[in-house]
Amino acid sequence: MAAPAQKPTCKIGPSILNADLSNLQESCIKMMDSGADYLHLDVMDGHFVPNLTFGHPFVKCLRPKVPEAFFDMHMMVSDPEKWVEPMADAGANQYTFHIEATENAKALARQIREAGMKVGIGIKPGTPVDVVVPYADEADMILVMTVEPGFGGQKFMGDMMSKVKFLREKFPDMDIEVDGGIGPNTIDACAEAGANMIVSGSAVVNAENPEAVISLLRGRVQNVLQ
Ligand SMILES: O=C(CO)[C@H](O)[C@H](O)COP(=O)(O)O
Ligand SMILES: [Fe+2]
C-alpha cells in the first residue's frame, strides 16, 4: 500500500555553487549550522550547460564531512543515466535530472529509485510545464528553474511562477522546488506560487549572516503554507 500523502513542508537548500570552491567542506558545514534543511549540489558537465563543476568523487569525499545532510543533486548533465549508480554510491539522497536531457524519463526515474535515491525532475525556463506532468507520478519532486541553468548569481525569472502555480494546483502534495536568483527580494513570489523547496545560492552564501537569511526565507514560505 502506498504511504499516505503528506502536506509539503518548507525546506531551504543552499546551493554552494558560488561559495569558496577551495573550501567547500567548510561552506557546507556552515550552511548546515546556519539552519539549512538540505544541501543543493550543482553538477555541470560543460555540455548540457556551458559550465563545469564537480562529479561523484567530490560528493563521496564530502559525504563523511556532513554525514547528516540531505544531498539534493542537481544534475545539469547530458547523460543523466550514466551517473545514477556512482552518485548513489557516493552518498547522494536525491537525484534531480533534467527532462530535456533524457529520452526515457520513466526508465530513468525507476533506475534512480532502484539505486535508493529520491527522484527529482527539473525543467529549464524554455520548457513548457506540461511536459513534466506525465512523469509526476514517478517523481518525489519537480524542480522549476528560475534562471537558465549554468551559473549562480543570475536574475530571477518571475514569469516562471505560472509554472509553479500550475504544478501546485495539480499536485497539492508534491515537493516543488525553485532554483535560481532566489533571496529575500524574490522569495515572496515563490512562496505565493506554491513552492516549498527553496534553493538559494548567492543570497545565502554571500550573506554576512546566512542564518538570518535562511530564517527569513523559511518564515515567508511557512506563512503561505499555513
Ligand atoms: O542550478 C543553479 C544554476 O544553474 C544554481 O542552483 C542556482 O543558480 C543557485 O544560485 P543562485 O541562487 O545564486 O542563483
Ligand atoms: Fe541548481
Structural descriptors:
TIM Barrel, Aldolase_TIM, 226 residues, D-ribulose-phosphate 3-epimerase activity, single chain, 8 helices, Ribul_P_3_epim-like, binds ribulose-5-phosphate, 8 strands, isomerase, zinc, globular, binds fe (ii) ion
Tell me the layout of helices and strands:
Layout: E1 11-14, H1 24-33, E2 39-44, H2 56-62, E3 71-76, H3 84-90, E4 94-98, H4 105-114, E5 118-123, E6 141-145, H5 161-170, E7 175-179, H6 187-193, E8 197-200, H7 202-205, H8 210-225
Parallel strand pairs: 1-8, 2-3, 3-4, 4-5, 5-6, 6-7, 7-8
Helix pairs in contact: 2-3, 5-6, 6-8
Short synopsis of the structure:
This protein has 226 residues and is α/β, with parallel strands linked by helices. Helices cover 31% and strands 18% of the residues. The protein has one domain (11-225): TIM Barrel, CATH 3.20.20.
Task: Tell me roughly what share of residues is in helical segments.
Answer: 25-40%
CATH class descriptor name: Alpha Beta
Q: What's the total helix number?
A: 8
Any guess at the CATH architecture? Alpha-Beta Barrel
CATH evolutionary superfamily = Aldolase class I
The total count of strands amounts to 8
Number of domains: 1
Major sheet description: 8 strands, parallel
Q: What shape does the CA trace take?
A: globular
Average per-residue pLDDT, rounded, comes to 96
